[in-house]
Fold FadR family transcriptional regulator.
Amino acid sequence: MERRAATPRRNGESLSEGVYGSIRARIDAGEFPQGSLLPREDELALAFGVSRTVLREALTRLRHDGLIASKRGTGNRVLEERRPTIFQAAPAHSIADLEACYKFRYGVEPEIAALAAERADREATGRIEASARRLEAVVASGHLGPEHDLAFHAAVAEATRNSYYIQTIAAIAKPVEVGLKVAAALSPIEPVRRLTPTITEHRAILSAIEAGDPNAARLAMQAHIRASRERVFVGAAPAG
């Protein structure tokens, strides 16, 4: 692949979203034909001028959208038959929409975590661990993009090896991202202190999955979704 000076992005779009869009466009155009292997990760990262972390976030989304499949020792292959999208979540335009999204997440994501605890192998738990570490690193630096939080939940869903759960998490990514941005915009607490509980909650989920304890994973995810909702709505509530 030729090296690019920069990954094209729309206003407000993260680096990983820009890479995702570029690779998807190449797949749609046939530049990466169905059934073919994508270039190696180091080659793609160099070509798009991004880190391996950013590239892997884009590849995770491509997998969730049914565009590619990954296999250890083989690489990322463009799927010949794309999985149909199960559903698309409505955009979050109001606080009421965010509340509906959190209620949906509370009903679904704990079961995703429980199944991940039953099914996750060493490779899957490694991906969850890596996403948790990336979130911790960006929080420590004071620079957090919502994609780091979303990547953790995507990795948990991927560990279930259930395409319905995987696509569900991908489908609600946008309204979840809106919630994270609302919490960041309205909270009077500085970012590192505000996001430290998220790291602790993610670690509790990861520990339960690593231990193969579905009930503990379910409870840890329930606690995380409740706390995440509070971080949005405590900041969004009117004074008085």
